[in-house]
Amino acid sequence: MLPRILAFLLLLLPLALPAAEAERAHTAGPSVRVYTPPLRMPALGFARQLRVYLPPDYARGSRRYPVLYMFDGQNLFDDATSYVGEWGVDEAMDALAQEQDFPAIVVGIDHGNGLRINELIPYWNVRFLPNAGAAFVADLVQAIKPFVDANYRTLPGREHTAILGSSLGGLSADYAIHRYPEVFGKAGVFSPSYWVSDEPFAIARRTPLPADSRVYLYMGGKEGEESVPQVARMAAILHAQPGAGAKSVALHIVPEAEHNETAWRAEFPLAVRWLFGLPGP
């Protein structure tokens, strides 16, 4: 019981601490645009801010780009809007564009602050009603992705489309690739909150992913005693699927890492490299 209570408290921290902190300077680079007005999400019933990163060469040609969709948009690019430090996604993607010739678009979807816990749980859990995660991901597929494909030069196919998140966002990324495998060919599942429900494991067993899917599972060793066994359990299920292999499932455990943005920032470029088949650092 204690590990579950600690996990719940970790989920609440991003909502409670920013109000007590001094205002921080903005750190998002010029390649990040905040889409205004917020995009309406019909199934969820709310509007959500989109933060769109465009690669360095976007304005100089007609090239089309892969797209990475990410949850918790406030934490990705800008220290001023993040919880306790941003992921540095724009800097990491700039580096991959320069060093690996891998330019890509990143779309960050803001969470709903006090609604975050509800809107990123896609499974039944009576403690966190309403569980609106299925509606959130449905809006991502049916409203956000069509908007992005219509307004930016994307490569819209599943083989060029990835989803990535951490904590409840990691749980939602896992849900997204299993619920919409025809949309997402890749998923980065960081520190997933599998303690919410056993349903992700049941779904993974009964609905194998397409053979060319790629799932990157990550967990820090200091995220709670249940966390590493749970993510290892998911990795074993995915490895057992027909056609699965080293190129379809990766499991990375960092023993000294905790449940925070610092750890996810360090892991992010490694995950993007693996998901899109780029050479290692």
Could you characterize the architecture of this molecule?
- The protein is built from eight helices and eight strands.
- The protein has about 280 residues and is α/β, with parallel strands linked by helices.
- Helices cover about 35% and strands about 20% of the residues.
- The protein has a single domain (about 1-275), classed as Rossmann fold.
- The protein has an eight-stranded mixed β-sheet, with helices on both faces.
- The protein has helices at about 1-15, 90-100, 115-120, 135-150, 170-180, 200-205, 225-240, 260-275, and strands spanning about 30-40, 45-55, 65-70, 105-110, 160-165, 185-190, 215-220, 250-255.
- The longest helix is centred in the middle third of the chain and has 19 residues, at about 135-150.
- It is globular, with a radius of gyration of 17 Å.
Descriptive terms for the model:
alpha/beta, 281 residues, single chain, Rossmann fold, globular
The H-level CATH homologous superfamily, spelled out, is Alpha/Beta hydrolase fold, catalytic domain
Distance between the termini: 40 Å
Q: What is the CATH third-level topology name? A: Rossmann fold
Which bin fits the share of residues in helices? Answer: 25-40%
Based on CA atoms alone, the radius of gyration comes out at 17 Å
Count the domains: 1
- Name of the CATH first level: Alpha Beta
Biggest sheet descriptor: 8 strands, mixed
Q: Quick gist of this model?
A:
The chain is α/β, with parallel strands linked by helices.
